[in-house]
Amino acid sequence: MPPLSDIQQRIGHQFRNQELLERALTHKSYANENRVPAHNERLEFLGDAVLGLVISEYLMRTCPDSTEGDLSRLRAAVVSEPALASIAREIGLGSYLLLGKGEEQTGGRDKDSLLANTLEALIASIYLDAGTAAVETFVLF
Amino acid sequence: MPPLSDIQQRIGHQFRNQELLERALTHKSYANENRVPAHNERLEFLGDAVLGLVISEYLMRTCPDSTEGDLSRLRAAVVSEPALASIAREIGLGSYLLLGKGEEQTGGRDKDSLLANTLEALIASIYLDAGTAAVETFVLF
Q: How confident is the model at residue B3 (pLDDT cuts 50, 70, 90)?
């Protein structure tokens, strides 16, 4: 795994609390195998909501004439699994993931669902570390 | 319609920008009939995301041992249409709604979908008026 300083450079956020970053990158399968108490599933839950709000505010600002239906369709496209997996691949998120052996053997490191979920967990960890503004910087720029 | 001061007392938030409250209470059908430019549909879109984040953070805090699956199910129940419509009825939201004649005649003032959407719009208007903390005060207390 490349050093964690690399991923922080790539996403433009230096974590005050490195544990948050480590938790975001720890898949449940790794935590189970290695008896690590924390993994990223609950962060994924929070990240989904954080991302939803950041994208909604962005769309409200940038699409002043769009209807609620159009905004909803746009948001759904932006936060879709393939879109999130694509961003995750761009920042090389898979290579920083702590995965269990089973997931590793079945190609988990490049699965859309796993990458999208990890990106959501990463977004939650940035939010908990530094608030909405830091997430906006990462997601929108 | 009762005075708008009443609904502000009921929800525990005094709007700095009263226009936000008025927009949240203006249904598209009323805006169309009366050539009012602003209605609450786009606010509904934003409110859905604001509510999602506020509830997610609350569940993360109060359910430290719940899995991501449990948290997702809980969140879905809390933000479901019947749950939101029930809160809307508790605060008497229907009586403050500006509705078009067609919606009025078909009982729109007491429709679950319409009440839930208006509550989401109200949540967005509180958020735009005073931020997340004000929404938390309204939603969680």
A: confident
- 8 Å CB contact between B93 and B19: no
Any idea what DSSP says for residue A139? H
Q: What is the pLDDT of residues B11-53, one digit of tens each?
A: 999 999 999 999 999 999 999 999 998 999 999 999 999 999 9
Domain ranges of chain B: 4-140
pLDDT at B68: 96
Please report the residues numbered 38 through 97 in chain B whose beta carbons come closer than 8 angstroms to any beta carbon of chain A.
41-42, 44-46, 48-50, 52-53, 55-57, 60, 66-68, 71-72, 75
- Alpha-carbon distances of A135 from A41, A65, A109, A128, rounded to whole Å: 18, 25, 24, 10
Q: Is B70 a catalytic residue?
A: no
B48 is catalytic: yes
Q: Do B68 and A45 touch (CB under 8 A)?
A: yes
Interface of B with A in 96-115 (CB under 8 A): none
With b for 16 or more beta-carbon neighbours within 10 A and e for fewer, the B65-102 pattern comes to ebebeebbebbeebbeeeebbebbeebebbebbbbbee
ipTM attached to this prediction: 0.94
Cβ separation B49–A49 shorter than 8 A: yes
Pick the residue from chain A with its C-alpha nearest to B65. Answer: A42
Whole-model pTM: value is: 0.95
Angle in degrees, 0-180, between the axes of helices A68-78 and B41-62, rounded to the nearest 10: 40
Domain B4-140 classification at class level: mainly alpha
Q: How far is B55 from chain A (nearest CA, A)?
A: 9
